UniProtKB/TrEMBL annotation:
Enzyme class name: transferase
GO molecular function: 5-methyltetrahydropteroyltriglutamate-homocysteine S-methyltransferase activity; zinc ion binding
Cofactor(s) named in the record: Zn(2+)
Protein name: 5-methyltetrahydropteroyltriglutamate--homocysteine methyltransferase
Length: 743
C-alpha cells in the first residue's frame, strides 16, 4: 500500500482459523496443556496465513491488528492503558492479565460481555473509572505490522477509534475523557508512523446510531486533532452496520484521508454522500460486499452503486460492508451443501475475491463480471407456505382476553402462589457432550443416543420433583444449540459443516442458513416433551425457540422481506405449539432472548422492527386455546426501548433477567401497565455463586413491591446449561424454599 489507498480492501477478517485453530490453542493454554510460547506460535501462523491469503487474492489494502486472542475491543483497551486496577493488582503476566479481564479469575470477575451492535459477536466492555490513566501501549499493532513486513506484506493496522471506544465503555461518563484519550491515540499514531505505517484504520461504528450533538462534536474534535498531527499515518475512519448520520459532515470537517461507509446495510449512504458537498480529495471506502451475511454479491448491482459513488468522490476503494469477522472462513470446504445453494454463497475467502473483482471492474469497466445465478430455484419455494402467509388475518395473532386465559389456565394447572420453575436447560454434563460427539463420529447410533437422552430427561424430572419445583422442564439435553436444533429439522434451512463464526472469545457458533420457504416436516419437540410429561403429574413446559431468535442466529435469505421469513418460521412454530397442546402439554415456553439484540441501532427503524418481531411471536403463540399457558423468556437486562414490546408479546408469563439489575425491570413493566405473569430472575446463572435462601427472599420481596405476588413467578435468570449440578441443586433448593417461606 502506498500513499493512495488502492482499489480493494476488507475491514477485517476472521481470526479463529479455518479449523478453529485459535479456539483450540487458547483453550489448551487456559487448561495448562501448552505454554505462552506455543500459543504465540499458533497465533503467528494464523496471522501469516490470513495475510498471505489476502495478498495472493490480490487485495491491495491488507488489514493487521485484526487478530485477537479474545476480542478486539479488549485489545484496544490494552493499547490505551485502560486496564482496570483490579486486574493489574493481580500481578500476572501481560497475557494472563489480558485473559483475566476476558474470563475472570477466582478473585475477580471478568469485564462485562455484551453484544457488538446488532450482531451476535460479543465484546468486552471497557471499564473506565477515576483510577484509569490512559497510557499508550502500541506493542500489539506495532508488532503485527512488523511481523507482516517481515513476510513482505504491508498492512494497515486497525484499532477501535477513540470515540466509539468511549461510547462502548462503562463508568462515570467515559466520553468526558475523549480529549485525554485522543492524546494517547496521537502517541500511538506517532509510533506507528515512525515504524513506517502508511495507513491506519480507526473504526467508529458507534456513529451509525443516533448520537447527540456533543458526541458528534467529540468525533469532529478527535479527528481534527489526530488529523493535524505532524507525524502520523493516513487515517481511514470506518463506519459500518447502518447508514452514517450527522457524523459524515463532522468527519468531512476533519483532515482524515478516507471514510468507510456501509453501502449494504446503509444504501442511503449514497444519498448522504451526494448531499455532503465536496469530499476534498478523500477516498471513500465503499462497503459493497456484505460482511454480515453469506450470500454472493450481486456484482452488477454493486457496480452500479460503486459507479455512483465514483462519480461523487475523487477516489473510491471497494471493501466489505463491515469486518468479515461475522462470516465463516471458507465456503470451498463445504462439500455437502446442495449445488444450487453452494453456488449462491460466499464466505470470507470468496468475499475477498468479490471485493478484488469489484475493485478491478470499477477501474477497468465491467466486462469480466460473472452473471449471478438466477433468483432462488423453484425447489426452494413452497406454495402452501406462501398461501398460508397470504391468507393470514389479524385474528391469527390474537388470543382470548388475558383474564379469561388466566382463569382457564389456573383451573387446569392449579398452581400455588409464587410458582417455581426454571428457564429450560439443565447442566450440559461431560457425559452429554460425549454422547453428542460419539453420535457425530458414529461411535453410537441414533437409538443409543436417544436412549441416553431419555435417561437424562428422566433424571432431570426426578430431580425437579425432589426439589419441589412446580412447573418442570425436560432439560433440553437433546439440543446442540437452541437455534441449530430447530434449523436441522425445518425445511428451508441448511446446515454447514465448518461454517464457524466467533461469538465471543473461544466460543464459536455455526449458524444455519435460511435459504427457502420455511416449513415443518414433522413435529420437532413433541416426542421429548410428551416423554417428560409421561414421567410426572406436574406440568412439564414445552420448550421452543421463537421466530425472532431463530432469524437472529441464522444467516437469513435476502430475497424477501425479513418479516415474511419471520412469519414463515412463526407458522412452523405455531403448528408445533398446536401439536404440543394436542399431546397434553399445558405450558409452552417460546424463548426470545434475541428480541433486544436485533433492535435496530437507529430509533427511526425500531418501531417497524418491533412490529414485525412482536407480530411473528404472536403468530407463533396464538394457535393454542386459552387454557394453554404461554411463557416467554428474554435475556439481558437493558430492556429500555423494548419494554412496550414485551407487553405486546401478550405472553401469559414472561421470565426475564433481573438479578443483576436489582429488579429494576419490574418498575419499568409496572410503569407501562404490564398486567400478566412475570418471573424476574432471582439467581444470576452467569456466575457459579449460590444465592442463599435469604437473598432470594429479599429479591422476591423487592419484586413484590412492583408486581402483585399473585402474578409473580420464581425462577433463575436464564437456562442452566453452563452451570454444574452442585450449584444448580443448591440454588434451586434455596429458590423453592424462599418461595415456600413467602407464601
Ligand atoms: N430455554 C433456553 C435454555 O434454558 C433459553 C436460553 C436463553 O435464554 N439463551 O437454555
Ligand atoms: Zn436467557
Amino acid at each position: 500500500m502506498s500513499s493512495t489507498f488502492g482499489q480493494s480492501t476488507v475491514l477485517g477478517y476472521p481470526r479463529i482459523g479455518a479449523n478453529r485453530e485459535l479456539k483450540k490453542a487458547v483453550e489448551s493454554y487456559w487448561a495448562g496443556r501448552i505454554g505462552a510460547a506455543a500459543l504465540a506460535d499458533t497465533a503467528a501462523e494464523l496471522r501469516a496465513e490470513v495475510w498471505q491469503q489476502l495478498r495472493n487474492a490480490r487485495l491491495d489494502g491488507i488489514p493487521s491488528n485484526t487478530f485477537s486472542y479474545y476480542d478486539h475491543v479488549l485489545d484496544t483497551a490494552v493499547a490505551v492503558g485502560a486496564v482496570p486496577a483490579r486486574f493489574t493488582r493481580l500481578g500476572l503476566s501481560a497475557l494472563d492479565t489480558y485473559f483475566a479481564m476476558a474470563r475472570g479469575v477466582d478473585a475477580e470477575p471478568a469485564l462485562e460481555l455484551t453484544k457488538w451492535f446488532a450482531t451476535n459477536y460479543h465484546y468486552l466492555v471497557p471499564e473506565i473509572d477515576g483510577e484509569t490513566t490512559f497510557t499508550p501501549n502500541p506493542t500489539k499493532p506495532l508488532a503485527e505490522y512488523e511481523e507482516a513486513q517481515r513476510l513482505g506484506i504491508t498492512t494497515r493496522p486497525v484499532l477501535v477509534g477513540p470515540a466509539t471506544f468511549l461510547l462502548l465503555a462503562k463508568g462515570a461518563d467515559p466520553f468526558a475523557r475523549l480529549d485525554e484519550l485522543v492524546e494517547v491515540y496521537a502517541t500511538i499514531l506517532n509510533v506507528l508512523a515512525d515504524a513506517g505505517v502508511e495507513w491506519v484504520q480507526l473504526d467508529e461504528p458507534a456513529y451509525v446510531a443516533d448520537r447527540t450533538p456533543a458526541e458528534i462534536d467529540g468525533l469532529r474534535r478527535a479527528y481534527t486533532r489526530l488529523g493535524e498531527l505532524a507525524k502520523r499515518p493516513r487515517i481511514l475512519v470506518a463506519t459500518y452496520f447502518v447508514e452514517i448520520g450527522d457524523a459524515l459532515p463532522a468527519l468531512l470537517d476533519t483532515p482524515v484521508e478516507a471514510i468507510g461507509l456501509d453501502l449494504v446495510a446503509g444504501p442511503g449512504n449514497v444519498r448522504r454522500l451526494a448531499a455532503a458537498g465536496p469530499l476534498g480529495g478523500r477516498t471513500i471506502v465503499a462497503g459493497l460486499v456484505d460482511g454480515h451475511n453469506i450470500w454472493r454479491t450481486d456484482l452488477r448491482a454493486a457496480i452500479t452503486v460503486g459507479a455512483t459513488v465514483t462519480a461523487l468522490a475523487d477516489h473510491v476503494a471497494v471493501s466489505t460492508s463491515c469486518s468479515l469477522l461475522h462470516v465463516p472462513v471458507d465456503l470451498s470446504v463445504e462439500t455437502r451443501l446442495a449445488p444450487e445453494l453452494f453456488e449462491r454463497l460466499a464466505f470470507a475467502r470468496q468475499k475477498v475475491d468479490e471485493v478484488v473483482l469489484l475493485g478491478k471492474a470499477l477501474r477497468d469497466g465491467t466486462a469480466h463480471v460473472p452473471v449471478p445465478p438466477q433468483s432462488a430455484p423453484e425447489a426452494w419455494h413452497n406454495g402452501d407456505v406462501r398461501a398460508r402467509l397470504a391468507a393470514l388475518t389479524p385474528a391469527d395473532r390474537e388470543r382470548g382476553a388475558y383474564p379469561d386465559r388466566a382463569d382457564a389456565q389456573q383451573a387446569r394447572l392449579n398452581l400455588p402462589e409464587l410458582p417455581t420453575t426454571t428457564i429450560g436447560s439443565f447442566p450440559q454434563t461431560a457425559a452429554l457432550r460425549r454422547a453428542r460427539a460419539d453420535l457425530r463420529t458414529g461411535t453410537i447410533d441414533d437409538s443409543t443416543y436417544a436412549a441416553l437422552m431419555r435417561a437424562e430427561v428422566e433424571r432431570v424430572i426426578r430431580l425437579q420433583e425432589e426439589l419441589g419445583l412446580d412447573v418442570l422442564v425436560h432439560g433440553e439435553p437433546e439440543r446442540n444449540d437452541m437455534v441449530q436444533y430447530f434449523g436441522e429439522q425445518l425445511d428451508g434451512f441448511a446446515a454447514t459443516d465448518h461454517g464457524w463464526v466467533q461469538s465471543y472469545g473461544s466460543r464459536c457458533v455455526r449458524p444455519p442458513v435460511i435459504h427457502g420457504d420455511v416449513s415443518r416436516k414433522a413435529p420437532m419437540t413433541v416426542a421429548w416433551s410428551t416423554y417428560a410429561q409421561s414421567l410426572t403429574a406436574k406440568p412439564v413446559k414445552g420448550m421452543l425457540t421463537g421466530p425472532v431468535t431463530i432469524l437472529a442466529w441464522s444467516f437469513v435469505r435476502t430475497d424477501q422481506p425479513l418479516p415474511d421469513t419471520a412469519d414463515q418460521v412463526a407458522l412452523a412454530l405455531r403448528d408445533e405449539t398446536v401439536d404440543l397442546e394436542a399431546a397434553g402439554i399445558t405450558v409452552i415456553q417460546v424463548d426470545e432472548p434475541a428480541l433486544r439484540e436485533t433492535l435496530p441501532l437507529r430509533r427511526a427503524d425500531q418501531k417497524a422492527y418491533l412490529d414485525w418481531a412482536v407480530g411473528a411471536f404472536r403468530l407463533a403463540t396464538s394457535g393454542v386455546t386459552d387454557a394453554t399457558q404461554i411463557h416467554t423468556h428474554l435475556c439481558y437486562s437493558e430492556f429500555g426501548e423494548v419494554i412496550g414490546a414485551i407487553d405486546a408479546l401478550d405472553a401469559d408469563v414472561t421470565s426475564i433477567e433481573a438479578s443483576r439489575s436489582k429488579m429494576e425491570v419490574l418498575d419499568d413493566l409496572a410503569t407501562i401497565g404490564y398486567r400478566r405473569g412475570v418471573g424476574p430472575g432471582v439467581w444470576d446463572i452467569h456466575s457459579p455463586r449460590v444465592p442463599s435462601q435469604q437473598e432470594v427472599v429479599a429479591s422476591l420481596r423487592l419484586a413484590a413491591e412492583a408486581v402483585p405476588a399473585r402474578r409473580l413467578w420464581v425462577n433463575p435468570d436464564c437456562g442452566l446449561k453452563t452451570r454444574g449440578y452442585e450449584e444448580t441443586e443448591a440454588s434451586l433448593r434455596h429458590l423453592v424454599a424462599a418461595a415456600a417461606e413467602l407464601r
